[in-house]
Amino acid sequence: MKVRLLFSLFLFLLLDASAQRAKYNFNSDWKVLIGDPAGADAATFADQSWKKVTLPHAWNEDAAFKKDIVDHPTGIAWYRKHFKLPSSAKGQKVFLEFEGVRQAGEFYLNGVKIGLHENGAMAFGFDVTNVVKTGGEENVLAVRTDNDWNYREKATNSKYQWEDKNFNANYGGINKNVYLHVAPKLYQTLPLFSNLGTTGVYVYANDFNIKGKSATVHAESQVKNETGQPQQVVYEVTITDLNNKPVKTFSGEKVTLAPGETKTIKASSKVENLNFWSWGYGYLYDVKTELKVNNQAVDAVVTKTGFRKTAFENGMIYLNDRVIMVHGYAQRTSNEWPGVGLSVPAWLSDYSNNLMVESGGNLVRWMHIAPWKQDVESCDRVGLLQAMPAGDAEKDVEGVRWDQRKAVMRDAIIYNKNNPSIIFYECGNESISEPHMAEMKAIRDQYDPKGGRAIGSREMLNSKIAEYGGEMLYTNKSAHIPLWAMEYSRDEGSRKYWDEFSPPYHKDGDGPLHNGQPAAVYNRNMESQAVENVKRWFEFWNERPGTGKRVSSGGVNIIWSESNTHHRGEENFRRSGEVDAMRIKKQNFFAHQVMWNGWVVPEKQSLHIVGHWNYAPGVKKDIYVISTSEKVELKVNGKSLGFGTKSDGFLFTFKNIEWKAGNISAVGYDGNNKQICTNSIQTVGAPAALRLTQIKRPTDFVANGQDLALVEVEVVDAKGNRVPTALNMIHYTLDGPAEWRGGIAMGPDNYVLAKSFPVEGGVNRFLIRSTTTPGTITIKATSEGLKAATLTLATKPFKVENGLATTLPAAGLPSILDRGPTPSTPSYTMTRTPLAIVGATAGANADSASFSFDDNELSDWVNDGKLSTAWIEYTLEREATVNEVTLKLNNFRSRVYPLVIMVDGKEVFRGNTQTSLGYYTINCTPQKGSKVRIQLTGATATNGSNTGVEVNGKKLDDGVARDDAKAKGTLSIIEAEIYEGLPGAAKTASSKK
Hints:
Layout: H1 2-18, E1 22-25, E2 30-34, E3 51-53, E4 76-84, E5 93-98, E6 104-109, E7 112-117, E8 124-127, E9 138-146, E10 152-153, E11 158-159, E12 178-183, E13 186-188, E14 201-209, E15 214-225, E16 231-240, E17 246-251, E18 255-257, E19 262-271, E20 285-293, E21 296-305, E22 310-313, E23 316-319, E24 322-323, E25 326-332, H2 346-358, E26 363-367, H3 373-382, E27 385-388, H4 399-416, E28 422-426, H5 434-447, E29 454-456, E30 485-488, H6 526-541, E31 554-558, H7 587-595, E32 607-609, E33 620-627, E34 631-636, E35 639-643, E36 645-647, E37 651-658, E38 663-669, E39 675-682, E40 689-694, E41 708-716, E42 729-735, E43 738-742, E44 756-758, E45 763-770, E46 775-783, E47 786-795, E48 832-835, E49 837-842, E50 861-862, E51 871-889, E52 895-896, E53 898-903, E54 906-912, E55 920-936, E56 941-942, E57 972-981
């Protein structure tokens, strides 16, 4: 009997050892029906007439950019899929993984309800082992989705806070990827807490030696034993590099798991010759974690991850021991495209996200809702840092809605904890309470304690718990946690409008009222929007690391690409992107590319001439050049027109330049008059022909029913140059196994899905979708008076067997390493020396004088409103030569203060401050001393052009909560900083003039 039991156990272990985990692409062979037919959950329901689709697929995708966000179609839609599992799945565990549905889904397998998911934001899973059929028998999965804007959680009757018509574009149904997993009964769990309650594999590193290229790599897996027998397990880890070469193999101790037990098992080892993940350097490793029984592998999971070192201290962000000032984009998580919505193939996610890096962006702050896994993994590959929210709207909440937010943050952290590009967890789009911050931090510490990620929220300027913060639009500084602006420069403007002198001759700012008020800043042209973006960025850059003890950590511009979310301008979608909805570059893109080509300061010299050089005779206009140079010279047809007026650090203005056919060029010089960069623009000939070009992609165009080709159309002259002023209407025909998804342009329904729509600025793009039939596709473009163009594409076969595919959606997509590894040199040098303030006296309220230098932007010193008491005097740590005084004054956006500054009784400045996004630096006559007195000399004044009022009438933050608008004799200082110049150091470019 004993021998028989031992033999049975040996046979069980032998069988278990041969069972290997499989992950299938579960996106193919679905059907969808809009409506709610009775009995659609049943396996025998007749669905032969339903529309065939490949996931991801939003059933209301046709509305993307065609309709205002508030008009996105909602309701019930059913999805059904017939599939078969191979015989090898018999006796194994079977799981379904959904990256997400919108808003809620009820799930049925073979007529049995397997679960519910309702938050519309995060991934979830189901254990279907006891319901699924194997051995070639057919299974039917049915999903009832409901994307009602007013959907309420069934258990609580509460709406989710992020079901918001302002920002959460409503692409309904199964709009993200789905996978099926087959695993042995001794297995590593999936990182899907909703429904499964499991946390999966966790890989991280510490003990970094960046210069020595080594770190200690840790792997740990939550393991379940459902074999019915005790199991002795050895945990083995193998790290493989991008070239598929093994880097290191190491093991943990042998662990015994009792029947039914769940246990986390671990291993770690020092690893040499590592390539560290970095900005624009998406170096990733495959970390295979294996469970071995009797020296046989019974389960293996491959986690793709990267290793990087982070720190968040001294008001700065450190990546691989180098300070990085964040500059990038606040992007709607939908990240959508016209006629498709968010459900794009993975290569297109990489294309869009890598353009952010190409523009100089190093961080994307996804807004309000956790990004889907495809975008998270895409940022890993392209080397784009991420700030990951979970789910919120605009304010802190209590009760059920707070519990919902915590649950989504928990799920998002567990699901994404191995993605190196995530360096911030964001708990709210506004400040949250300290107890709530502590709760969120505890979730991070439970599920991702070693991942090197800061957790915080928007604002949180004086939090003792948050690890980062920053306001929406303004410059914040800190010597403690990093503070960065989270959605600055929200102005909007169409790509169609170059300037006031180009067809269609749109006067800058012209457009409809918004809520009954003028909305000029939301109807800009590309030229004025690019200039405004320079001005906005300069205020953050002017307070960059290297300018003192208290610094700004940067900011992100809202938004990256045009978005089908709330809008204030001429169109029914948001147009504040640096690229349009088809990812065609706007002038903003090139402005950022110049200013953002370094970690803190620009590390490559460059310039960009804003606009084109195709005007009518007699046109005279201002020309703007954006450059890192000290000075810029402009030439027309080789003739110098002199040097431009420099302002805002990077902007050079040349007034009233007359157009002449030929070329316009700009030359940048350094401080020693050495030429360091140049660029030119040519006059282009009349429109002559069309040109069609497929946007380059790294993988084949496959016939899976969901892949997309992105095609560009241009109007060109006889020499093949794009005509920048062309607005021709283009007509398209499509032949072959493909579906037209079209593009977008200003006009009826934004021309979404139309087969005739115009170019704007001589260019446009469109999408075509593959079918499940491979073959040749021919696209022809015609336009009156222009030579036609034809493009031929071919789709490759995509293998699907019984509803399962082994090729995963992101297969074959490369890591992009263009920027190279983190430089070993410092990213900044000190430009001035901060002088510590050790005490202060004041004309009134002297007991609160220290609030003006306490590194807390929510506190201030203010006098009693009398001009005679409107002074404060600081005592410095030592006698020094004072060169600059930097102030954050209350009502910084809207009020001008006449001041006199004295050092040891000697006047070093007399004049007016300027309005700003936070801080204003005053250049003083250098004077040695130990006491600095700042005094108001007269009534303050309101700057009517910058009152800080939104077009909806809401007053934006303008300092501390108290309103000093009517107190003419009030001096209110939020933060004061005093600086000594460094010998030979360049001054901070503080002046806006």
